[in-house]
Amino acid sequence: MTEDEARSWIDAQFNVSRETWRRLERYVTLLLAGMTEQNLIAESTRDQVWARHITDSAQLLRHATNAKDGIWIDLGSGAGLPGIVLACLSDRPLMMVESRRKRIDFLNNVLRDLDLRHASVFGGRVETVPAASAAILSARAYAPLPRLFSSAQHLSDKNTVWVLPKGRNAENELEATRGTWQAVFHVEPSVTDEASAIIVAQAVKPVAGRNKCA
After folding, report:
1. Cβ contacts of residue 56 below 8 Å, gap of 6+?
2. How far is CA 71 from CA 44, 51, 114, 135, 167, in A?
3. 14, 27, 40, 167: which is deepest, by most CB within 10 A?
């Protein structure tokens, strides 16, 4: 997917307003400027930021259309991918969870700059987030599935939709959960990379009698 194709895909999918485009453009500017102080994205993806990061994040919205009302919690948000992009494209309340001080500061600065008042940042580890029943949980490059489920189960209920981009290792990670975790799983192709996939899950819970951290 080229940069022009990535932008066109977002426009076609979400009928993006002028204000939303302004926010997305501004976020890209802040993201690239922030690279001078910390490694927010891989340097090799700088020239493909729309395809590799913005559209790659935006596509997660397509897999959460049937979620209940409520908060979207993004785990290990890092530079705001996908959290900031999702907050630009949706009015749903959104909380980004990030433990690294510089990343927390960056995310809060972006939220203020873009005036995204329905989004917030929780500074700390996922395990320390107060228990909740999130409508949607997402995580991009946060942890392998078994550890992800173990650390975030307290933020979900049987109706929570988990939207988890897993790159080219999706099937392997899904196989690694068998015997310890159960859910209604399906795997969706990524629009930005035909070899990558997104795991969508619901009713996630540990298999009875098995150690959750296995």
Report:
1. 81, 82, 165, 190, 192, 193
2. 33, 26, 19, 6, 25
3. 27
Q: What is the pLDDT of residue 213?
A: 47
Residues paired with 96 in a beta bridge: 74, 121
Delimit the domains of the chain by residue range: 3-163
Distance spanning both ends of the chain, measured CA to CA: 37
Percentage of residues in the chain having pLDDT higher than 90: 82
pLDDT tens digits along 176-191: 888 899 999 999 999 9
What's the average model confidence in pLDDT over 13-17? Answer: 93
What is the torsion angle, in degrees rounded to the nearest 10, for the CA atoms of residue 21, residue 22, residue 23 and residue 24? Answer: 50
Rounded CA separation 118/83 (Å): 12
How much is the pTM? 0.93
With tokens 């302004």, the residue in question is 22
| pLDDT value at residue 214 | 44
Read off the tokens for 99: 């433990």
Query: With contact defined as beta carbons under 8 Å apart, do 76 and 104 qualify?
Result: no
Nearest CA among 201, 199, 197, 181 for reference residue 189: 197
Domain 3-163 in this protein, CATH class: alpha beta
